[in-house]
Amino acid sequence: QNEETWDFVLVSDIHQMGSEKETKRKKFLDELSKKGFTIKKIEDTKLFYGVRAPPQIFRKYHYLLGKPDSKLQNHSSPQNIPVTTRIRIVHHILQNTVTPDFEKLRDLIKKKVFEAAFPLHEKEEVREFLKEKWARWRGVFSEQPIEKIRCYFGEKVALYFAWLGWYTYLLGVAALAGVVTFVAGITLFSSSQVSREICEANTTVMCPLCDQKCPFWVLSDTCTYAKVTHMIDNEATVVFAMFMAIWATVFLELWKRQRAKVVTDWDLYGWDEEEEELAMELINNLQHDPRLYQHSYFRSTIVLLLVLLMIAVLIGIAHALVIYRVIATALFTQSSSELLREQANTMAVMTGAVLHYVTIVVMTKVNRRVALFLCNLEKPRTFSQQENNFTIKIFTFQFFTNFSSLIYIAFFLGRINGRPGHYVRIAGRWRLEECHPSGCITDLFIQMAIIMLLKQTISNVMEYLIPWVAHKLRKKHKRPKKRSMVLGEEEEAEDPCKRQWLRNYELNEVNIFSLFNEFLEMVIQYSFTTIFVAAFPLAPLLAFFNNLFEIHLDAIKMVRLHRRMVPRKANDIGIWLQVLEAIGILAVIGNGLVIAITSDFIPVQVYKYMYSPCVRENRTDVDCSTGYINHSLSIFRIRDFEPYTDVPEMLPDFDGDKIKECRYRDYRNADDYTYTVQFWHIFAARLAFLILFEHVALCVKLIAAWYIPDVPQSVKNKILRRKHSDLRKELSMMEYSTEV
């Protein structure tokens, strides 16, 4: 074995002799020496300590966790232990070595005794292969070398890339379906009866959109908007929403199979994390007592209340965005520029979406702090338990940060704003926004498109640029000055390790959440591609292209820009699987609600089958949705306006005195403004559709989950054969020993 391989490097500033920091550092290194570690010191602008663990540590590990038959032939040498395992064991020992002052490495780093501790990127052929074939932009469409990734970064990272690759692969199918839906919408662009009626309605006078300076307007002015709405909101969308609910289930079931195949090849199918952790603790310290499981209802209640409080804050932020949009609309409608006045609503939605993106960026940082604080309150037993608790909390917070504003647009916008003469107002002044006569779904479409595009462009560029720039800057700063040689130092200056250690030190540091951040980003993206996909059929396509880059972006960051991660062993993606399953159920509910409530699908169907000319006059020569628009607008008498509404300048072509009434989108009676029977018909139809859609979709999900087995037969047979041969071997050995 080459004597110059070092498992870990510790970096510290050069402290004064006899200072407190120097004593603490010495004590820590002495503890390592007692455990048999070899330590090599190199001095530069910083002090570097290379650490190499003694072979017996790996022998113990192999003895405790190796195959049962390898314990009998006691010749396992440390060379047989993979590098990833070596690094993991050494990392564990470094983190859990206690100095006589009862301080661990974590405390020493906090107190600035050490600056960093990291394993080295090596010049081994695996890394060179990854650098050339995988961490390159031109490898975008080639298959990922999962086995090689595992050998270099450990199982956890390899499983992340295996999952991401599989998700992207299946996104291709969803993206195709989304594009087909969208194209179907475009071909219907001008042919829809509903949008044709809006375009021809040049005598329908609509009520003003604001209280001052807003004229009456004619419905046909919004012809283009109506066409766009119908492009998104048609029968094809309903089918697509159903398809995506099933896709989400099939994707997860197929991933479970894929994961079983991969981890069986790695021999980790029945791996026991707890046993591994206990073995590591005992190798580090034979007198170690295990931390027992504990559960405190009091603590859980406190955490639950704090989580609910945080969610309330996030919903409050969504409310603030709503208020922003209301006030922005009011200000835009009073502006001097014609363009702003006419497009006030769209402008408010767009700037609102950009503002929402900014709150997402800011709140992500806040959410992380809060989730960590709550995790520490719970005092989890092990690191993996801490990670699970943290995952669930931060996902919940991120979900509300990303989606509360979208939920408002989808389900509340235009439903809680009252009617002309009796509007719901914020602080008694500003009217809440209302929906366009052709429906609210376009607002949802705009909001989702802007957020997804910004998240994918700006966030990805920052994610790559920040580490890249940081790396370049560190390189510039850390280049050591040529120091004047002191006598007897010539041979040390040319140390081959020095260059390698310095180069690793110049890379960006990684923390335990580096991989976690990537997962979180992908899971939020998965929510965007499934939950409101009925309103934005192009979401899977955007996600698909984003992921092709994402895989290589992450690869380049890990191999070229960041220090080496401490490899972690794992045999699945952990709690993320439950999170993805929860999103699958939310997707069914979300899409059901979008079609039942946001879209105009149900009102049009109710009209077709209950009120249309087809039903009333038994005519077959007309489109059944003829007359729908006129039917869906109520009449308002102008004399009933609130007293402080300035009835504004009239339309140029109309005579002011002739306009006695205007129309607005709702189902109310003309005399006393109460809801009509049709309103309740539609309400009942919406509820019935929602219940039907969700039950059918959930049943199909359950059938799909049952139909596709989680573990392929080949894997089951492999495990069966292995058990059989192990038992046979033991029995034959027993017979052999009794004969002897």
From TrEMBL:
Residue ranges constituting the Anoctamin dimerisation domain according to the UniProt record: 76-146
Transmembrane spans: 157-186, 236-255, 301-327, 390-413, 523-549, 570-597, 683-708
Top-level taxon of the source organism: Eukaryota
Membrane topology label: Multi-pass membrane protein
Cellular location(s): Cell membrane; Membrane
GO molecular function terms attached to this record: chloride channel activity; protein dimerization activity
Cited InterPro entries: Anoct_dimer, Anoctamin, Anoctamin_TM
Key words of the record: Cell membrane, Glycoprotein, Membrane, Transmembrane, Transmembrane helix
Anoctamin transmembrane domain ranges (all copies): 149-721
Record's GO cellular component terms: plasma membrane
Pfam families attached to this UniProt entry: Anoct_dimer (PF16178), Anoctamin (PF04547)
Membership in a protein family: Belongs to the anoctamin family.
Protein name as annotated: Anoctamin
Organism (species): Serilophus lunatus (silver-breasted broadbill)
Gene name per UniProt: Ano9
